[in-house]
């Protein structure tokens, strides 16, 4: 009974965090769209940096809470002796095959690193490098240089 | 009549495109939504090119609305001396973790082309241990052409996106062929040489190969597939095998056109075609839930409720995606603002025979000197637009410098650097042309001089003015000493 309650709480926390993460992503995407497509259209590093720095605290907070949630699930699994990664129950034909916990944590960490790199890229100018190369014809790339 | 309709309906049902095919076409259209680029022969230059398309899609394609991840990676590595390429690393990591090689089967326009070519009715070459061994070639191409060469050349003050330059068929097809097929780009034909011949032959080889071998380029040559394949075990979306149901019959690996050892390995493009073939239903899609616990125990009634919920979510997502494509098509082709440029008075122009605009070009060096065209009448002026990031531009600079020295009494050579990487220009000039008779100028932040003299996204371009400031000749691409010398002799 207690195990089911803890599982339920874990699920609710997971849904809330997933929604927060989605909202954060939408906010960042919305800020990007606003800078690039609305207004006078001038895309400057300062504007991007300013927008991202406003969103960064919320984003970092979400990541921290996500990490805490993952830690909580590990604690939960250890506490109730649950076999990590699989549960066999009422419906044996639905026995799922999921990644081991370690790999799921690794995936989360890499996801966070990816988002951090994108942020760092926006701040150090490598994002702008991509834009500036992409708006010019690369004569070498198309066999003309 | 009824039979005809019945058979037509049956034919349509039998030949209805699969969901995966529809998604592939959708993605190809979304990443190339700038359809007016094909009509104008110009590439899109807007801010959405900050984003990278997940699949192989050359950004020199007139229709491309996003950057290519492989081209961006090579260019970023080539510029890694100045800054760490965090952005492209983050993008590749994100795409790999979210989708892995699902990108290859659902979102890559070049993958779609190969699959369509493979539908041509010919005998097909089956996969074997040789093709399996050859599938590792793409990792070698990734290491050597995509990573090593750009970094090596960067360390030697050069620029070489080696894979794009020597191999990539997407650039040849979507970039070169698409640009060359527009009449306004006829000057580009002059730039065709051995490199284009090589790349075109390679493109033909990939096209013909795709007819006989399933996804010929993807399996053996695509470095992007090699990168995404590394994430196949971790990615959120893809196929999974339920070991409790799997009977090791091998039908899945036998049916698959890729060189997989098992479903979901680094060669698997997660297309899901094996799901229908599995006799026990052991292969399913995994949606991936990074946070929620692994347990999926549920009663049939709950399963039905979940299925209805999923159906609703699928409908909403489909509607949103359709709106996104519609918005992209309308925005890029009708609402996007015309590229800002400097307006001419109608008297001036950049075509041969026009009186050239009177430019006041700031020069590199100490002081705030400017080269004003109107103050330098009586001399032939050779105006060249270049950039330190442009290898052909740097290759023709010695010829321009020699012209400036040999014709110092009659002609002025003015090399105007683009706004891209302008900070690197003074160092480059100081190192390689400290005593050159050539003048080095800088373009405005929006490359206004380049646009004013008719630049069409291509570098280098050279404009030759006679003694009265009229445009004598325009060239796009690399020029040699003899051509310029003969022009100057003719003008005199």
Strand composition percent of chain A: under 5%
Principal-axes shape call of chain B: elongated
Number of domains of chain A: 1
For the CA atoms, what is the radius of gyration of chain A?
A: 21 Å
Quaternary state, please? Answer: heterodimer
Termini separation of chain A: 71 Å
Structural class of chain A: mainly alpha
Count every helix of chain A, treating DSSP H or I runs of 4 or more residues as helices: 4
- The rough form of chain A would be described as elongated
Please state the CA-atom Rg of chain B, rounded to the nearest Å. Answer: 27 Å
Please, could you describe this protein's structure?
The complex is a heterodimer of chains A (145) and B (492). By secondary structure, chain A is mostly helical. In chain A, helix 1 packs antiparallel against helix 2 and helix 2 runs antiparallel to helix 3. Chain A has one domain. The termini of chain A are far apart. Chain A has four helices and no strands. Chain A is elongated and about 70 Å long. Chain B has 492 residues and is of the alpha/beta class. Chain B has two domains: 272 residues, no CATH class; 132 residues, Glutaredoxin (3-Layer(aba) Sandwich). Chain B has 20 helices and nine strands. The radius of gyration of chain B is 27 Å and the shape is elongated. About 3% of the residues of chain B have low confidence. Chains A and B meet through helix 1, helix 2, helix 3 and helix 4 of A and helix 4, helix 5, helix 11 and helix 12 of B.
Give a quick precis of the structure.
The complex is a heterodimer of chains A (145) and B (492). Chain A has 145 residues and is mainly alpha-helical. Chain A contains four helices and no strands.
